[in-house]
């Protein structure tokens, strides 16, 4: 849509400056302490949520399935031979779901070919959910434009600015996660 905005005579803001115009969340964003920062975060969360809903619909999944899939992907194998994976119990904790709801989500994701459940080698009673590497093709296609636009925007900022944004987002995400778990 940025192309449409430019065609309608609106200019993109300079990198690192506050956007203006007739976007519903536009306004004075020059001061990072103003309520406008909260509005920008709400707008970002809303757009990300809507993209997730679109992916879910296109994939024949529920939106909860997409959230579960993201949690399983975050638990994918790491460097140094870490096998990755997440237990259904941990997945339920992360998503705030009952064990029955987690089972239903995992059944749908398994049928769709996104995940597999295996028994832990050391403790056969323990089930671990793994992301299937080949399952990401549809997600990669769906989210490729998101990645491209993210990189375009990223290129408008200096490494120092990006470091500050990353630090802020990491801190606020951690604080909100802690708040969610404390309730």
Task: Please characterize this protein's 3D structure.
- The protein has 183 residues and is mainly alpha-helical.
- The chain has 7 helices and 2 strands, in the order αααααββαα.
- It has a two-stranded antiparallel sheet.
- The chain is globular.
- The protein starts with a helix and ends with a helix.
Task: Provide a quick synopsis of the model.
This protein has 183 residues and is mostly helical. The chain has seven helices and two strands; from the N terminus they run αααααββαα.
Write the layout of secondary structure elements.
Blueprint: H1 2-7, H2 35-59, H3 63-74, H4 88-95, H5 99-111, E1 115-119, E2 127-131, H6 137-154, H7 159-182
Helix pairs in contact: 2-3, 3-5, 4-5
């Amino acid at each position: 849509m940025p192309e449409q905005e430019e065609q309608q005579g609106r200019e993109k803001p300079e990198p690192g400056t506050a956007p203006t115009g007739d976007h519903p969340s536009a306004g004075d964003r020059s001061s990072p302490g103003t309520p406008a920062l909260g509005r920008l975060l709400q707008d970002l969360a809303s757009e990300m949520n809507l993209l997730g809903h679109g992916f879910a619909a296109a994939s024949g999944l529920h939106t909860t399935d997409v959230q579960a899939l993201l949690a399983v992907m975050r638990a994918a194998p790491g460097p140094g031979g870490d096998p990755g994976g997440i237990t259904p119990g941990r997945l339920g904790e992360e998503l705030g779901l009952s064990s029955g709801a987690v089972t239903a989500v995992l059944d749908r994701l398994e049928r769709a070919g996104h995940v597999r459940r295996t028994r832990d080698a050391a403790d056969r009673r323990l089930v671990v959910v793994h992301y299937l590497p080949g399952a990401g093709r549809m997600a990669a296609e769906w989210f490729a434009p998101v990645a491209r636009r993210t990189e375009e925007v990223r290129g408008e900022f200096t490494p120092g600015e990006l470091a500050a944004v990353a630090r802020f987002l990491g801190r606020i995400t951690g604080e909100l996660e802690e708040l969610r778990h404390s309730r």
